[in-house]
Amino acid sequence: MLKKILYVLIGLFVLIQLVPANRENPPVRADLEAPQAVKAILKRSCYDCHSNETHWPWYSYIQPVAWLVAHDVEEGREHLNFSDWGQYSADKRSSKSEECVEEIEEGEMPMSIYVWMHSEAKISPEDLAVLKQWSDGL
Questions:
Q1: Is 90 exceeded by the pLDDT of residue 31?
Q2: Share of the chain above pLDDT 70, in %
Q3: CA quadruple 93, 96, 101, 104: dihedral positive or negative?
Q4: Is the dihedral of CA 110, 83, 85, 125 positive or negative?
Q5: Chain centroid, CA 59 distance in Å
Q6: Between 20 and 70, where is the model more confident?
Q7: Burial of 69 (0-12, 13-18, 19+ CB in 10 A)
Q8: Which residues of 100-136 are buried (b: 16+ CB within 10 A; e: fewer)?
Q9: pTM of the shown model
Q10: Whole-angstrom Cα distance, residue 100 to residue 25?
Q11: Mean pLDDT of 103-110
């Protein structure tokens, strides 16, 4: 009986691989214009979920993880998309940058599961100071 259950689970795992996740990277419409230090921090820590320049790692091709990653990217882009930054009004850019800093300060962003898989995405106090200065200047 245990063997049959194992075979069914393996079969289901193989079958769900046939249902792809949406790993589309739409064109960049109006990229972020910011100082190089700011862009470097954001590209390292935020762009995989908050831009149209997502790097899809190997695990984003294996179901069911692929669906979760694609869902997180879709939600991230809906909330803030640096590939559309230039299309935001000045007020929206200002509020979004303030929100970014606040999310980082509260430990909400980058998501802990993302930092666990991408340790380089961790934002240091120095990085946060650079982002605050940029945000205050908008």
A1: no
A2: 100
A3: negative
A4: positive
A5: 15
A6: 70
A7: buried
A8: bbebbeeeebbeeebbeeeeebebeeebeebbbebbe
A9: 0.87
A10: 22
A11: 96
CA 54 to chain centre: 7
User: For the chain, first and last CA: distance in Å?
Assistant: 64
SS (H, E, C) the chain: CHHHHHHHHHHHHHHHCCCCCCCCCCCCCCCCCCCHHHHHHHHHHCHHHHCCCCCCCHHHHCCCHHHHHHHHHHHHHHHCCHHHHHHCCHHHHHHHHHHHHHHHHCCCCCCHHHHHHCHHHCCCHHHHHHHHHHHHCC
For position 120, what pLDDT does the model report?
A: 96
The answer to whether 49 and 73 have CB atoms below 8 angstroms apart is yes
Q: In the predicted model, what is the mean pLDDT of residues 65-91?
A: 95
Token code pair at residue 3: 């063997």
Close Cβ partners of 61 (under 8 Å, ≥ 6 residues apart): 23
Q: 125-136 vs 90-105: helix axis angle to the nearest 10? A: 160
Residue with tokens 């908008």: 138
**The two structure tokens encoding residue 129:** 């100071």
The letter for the amino acid at 82 is F
